[in-house]
Amino acid sequence: MYEQITSNSLLSKDKKIVSIQQRSLPQVKMEGVKLLGMWGSPFAIRAKMVLEHKGLSYQYLEEDLSNKSELLLKHNPIYQKVPVLIHGERGICESLVILEYIDENWSETGPSVLPASPYERAIARFWAVYIDDKILPLVVGLINFANEETKAKHIANLHAAFEILEEAFKKCSAGKDFFGGDSIGYLDMTLGCYLAWIRAVERISEAKLLDETKVPLLAEWEKRILTVDCVKKALPSVEKLEVLGREMRAEGYQGSSAN
Length: 259
Prior knowledge:
Elements: H1 2-5, E1 33-37, H2 42-54, E2 59-62, H3 70-75, E3 84-87, E4 90-93, H4 95-105, H5 118-140, H6 148-173, H7 186-192, H8 195-205, H9 216-225, H10 229-234, H11 238-250
Parallel strand pairs: 1-2
Antiparallel strand pairs: 1-3, 3-4
Helix pairs in contact: 2-4, 5-6, 5-7, 8-11
């Protein structure tokens, strides 16, 4: 089960805002929209964010990953992991695919997620892959590091990855509040789904990971995005994730890379 909580295939591989805080949107009633997830999966959290961001009404179904439902096995027979979006009788897997599907399928509903420009969309997709490939294995590797040398290496590599993302934020945001500009978008959700886990793992590893002295722009971005309604609704508490992380550590969990 723990392997699935932190694998990016389970966790998935698995127009304008008046103020910083996203205004509440009336939920659009949609028949037959379900999300299969697990509360601690950052990739299920990511899928929740976009559904809330678009103001869509949906049914959330919590999966027991040690006893997977027939619905999950039916709609994701290849990876058998969450999140899975079910729209009518069709299943959509992988969190980044889900983000794009929701944005395109309900393009007239709520704020857009992807940039309008094809070039900017391509850049956003590039950085999304970077985030999932780099941030996930480094963060979860700190849940139960083998020794202090390994811990120090993970921390140094994570700091380096965040410093690269600091420069990406500077370019993508163009001086505005979010990667997406005036309001949150694709990259904000891609990185934002990790924030509670990052802070929980800081407590577990007793190390500063998202360090405002090294990445001041990302630190300020974190403060802003945590005030946005769809993010507040989707993210679990740091305390709850810390408990889960310590349970994983007690079970000898060694971490996994993104799929």
